[in-house]
User: Fold this.
Amino acid sequence: MDLDLPEGMKRAGTADWKQLGAITAEAFYEDPVNRWIFGTSKTLDAAFPILARTHYLKHGLCHLIGDGGAAMWLPWGAPSEISLSATAQLAWALIATGSLGAIGRALEAGARMQAHHPKEPHLYLFTLGTRLASRGKGIGKALLAPVLAECDRTGTSVYLENSNPVNEGFYRSHGFESQGYFPCGKDLGDQKAPLLQKMWRAPKAPGA
Assistant:
C-alpha cells in the first residue's frame, strides 16, 4: 500500500515491536473486551508486543505517531490466524503474568472473530489506539486518514471489530457502519461476555 504519510507518522518496522505493542496495550487498558479476555493491564502489556512482533509486523501494515499512537492493519490475503509458535509464546506470556484463564478466553475470542469475519475482500483494522496521556489530540484521526484515503483511491473496503461502545461515534464519523454484534466469548456465570461490534466502511467516491 503506497501511502502519503503526514509529518510525524511513520511505518513501523521490525525493531519497533516493543513500542508498537506497548502503545496498543495501554490504549486498551480500559477496553471492555480486552479486559474480559486478558484480565489485567500486566497481561495486556505482555500480549500485544508478541502479537505485533510475530504477526502484524510480519504480515500487516503498522504505523506509529511518536510514542503517542499506533495502528495495526492486515491486508486481504494475509494470514488471518497467528502461527502455532506465536500462540505458544502468547500462552506462555499469559501464564507468566498469572492469567491462565486468559488462554481459553483468547482462543475463544479469536475463533469467534474468525467465524464472523467478512468473506468479501477488505483491509482489516486490528487495532488503533493512543496512550492515555495522548487522547483527545487527534492522533487516532491522523493514523486513520492516510490509510482511508488510499482505500478510497483504490476502491478498498475496510473492516474492524469495535470493542468499546464509546468509540462507535468516532468510527461512524469516518464512514464506518455497524453490521451487528457478537459476544467475544462465553458468559462466566452471571457475567455476560462483552460484545464486539462489526463495522464496515465502503470506499468513498472522489469528492464524496
Remarks:
- Residues 38 and 102 are 5 Å apart (CA to CA).
- The chain is about 45% helix and 20% strand.
